[in-house]
Design a protein that fits this description.
By secondary structure, this protein is an alpha+beta fold. It contains 11 helices and 4 strands, in the order αααβαβαβαβααααα.
Length: about 325
């Protein structure tokens, strides 16, 4: 270190040791933070954090909703299998349905089998063919719903072979293809949602980095003087960390609260419009738009994560800046 730099540093240490406590006592009633507590850039950063948190929570809630719905579909489908019998001119449909039902209930892992009668089949076709259908004169396949035990799956290959031998027009659908598609869809949705969430968190971190650099650029001369007269880098970094932690908590809490309001509004809308065709279709696809406790817990985790990410990012940025200052001005001048 050069002689002027050593003199300046020694002077700063002496001032801090001898008159520093008196100065600190004089200004203890009204301390001035290194980082301005309220300015246009700070308010803009809080707004950006709130928006990013809101979008992150919406993404997490949508992923949770789709995952829970897919799990419900998968559970319901896995508990049932369907026997379909196509009509023929010489086929006694009533006897064929009874035979198929008896074959199904004879296997271990089958808890029951029910024939879908003509009236129920007509109701299933009403949206496409209207009312007043005579199922007996139409070439409509008939169904037998087989209820399965989730803990003990039946031998579908043997059941399918026996049905083909007894009723050539019968086909057994164990819904394995639908279950595989649902699992693939759920995994793809979760992957896309988590990728979007990571991108939003990365954008939040970059926003904090630029905001921290902007705050340091505006107060660079003060920070460098404090650093050169003896203030430790950890102390300066803690001032920025505290400032940005509060800003991040404020923005993240606002964004998370907004996302919760949206979730509650969707749930209220779906509950009030259960009888409409639009709500029926949406409920069939996504349930009642309730994300459950796991979704709200995820929102709280996202809020805490963004607040912590804001504080950590600003801390690391300040330390990197001060290290660069030490490298650029090793003599303190």
């Amino acid at each position: 270190m050069t002689e002027p730099g050593r003199i300046l540093k020694n002077l700063g240490e002496k001032l801090n040791a001898h008159i520093g406590p008196g100065i600190r006592g004089a200004v203890a009633k009204k301390p001035m933070p290194i980082v301005p507590s309220d300015n246009i850039a700070g308010r803009a950063m809080v707004l950006v954090i709130a928006i990013m948190t809101f979008l992150s929570c919406l993404t997490l809630g949508a992923v949770t909703l789709v995952r829970d719905t897919a799990t419900t579909w998968q559970t319901q489908i896995a508990r049932e299998a369907t026997i379909q019998i196509k009509p023929e001119e010489e086929l006694d449909m009533a006897n064929a349905l009874i035979t198929a039902r008896d074959i199904a209930v004879s296997y271990n892992g089958v808890t029951g089998a029910n024939v879908v009668d003509a009236a129920a089949t007509a109701r299933l076709l009403e949206p496409w063919l209207g009312t007043g259908l005579d199922i007996e004169v139409l070439p409509v396949p008939r169904l037998v719903i087989v209820t399965l035990d989730p803990a003990a799956r039946p031998d579908f290959a043997a059941m399918r072979a026996e049905l083909q031998q007894a009723i050539p027009n019968a086909t057994l659908d164990d819904h394995r293809t639908w279950v595989d598609r649902l699992v693939a869809m759920a995994r793809t949705t979760v992957t896309i949602g988590m990728t979007a969430l990571i991108l939003m968190l990365s954008a939040t971190a970059l926003t904090v980095i630029f905001a921290t650099r902007g705050a340091m650029a505006g107060n660079g001369h003060i920070i460098e003087v404090l650093h050169f007269v003896g203030a430790e880098a950890s102390f300066i970094a803690s001032q920025f960390r505290r400032h940005f932690l509060f800003a991040g908590m404020k923005g993240a809490a606002a964004g998370g609260f907004g996302a919760i309001v949206v979730f509650i509004a969707f749930y209220w809308w779906s509950s009030r419009n259960m009888a409409t065709p639009q709500a029926d279709q949406a409920t069939a696809l996504f349930g009642n738009f309730s994300i459950g406790m796991s979704g709200y817990l995820g929102v709280a985790i996202v809020v805490a994560l963004i607040a912590a990410l804001t504080a950590i990012t600003s801390h690391v940025t300040v330390l990197s800046y001060l290290k660069n200052v030490d490298t650029t001005h090793p003599d303190g001048m």
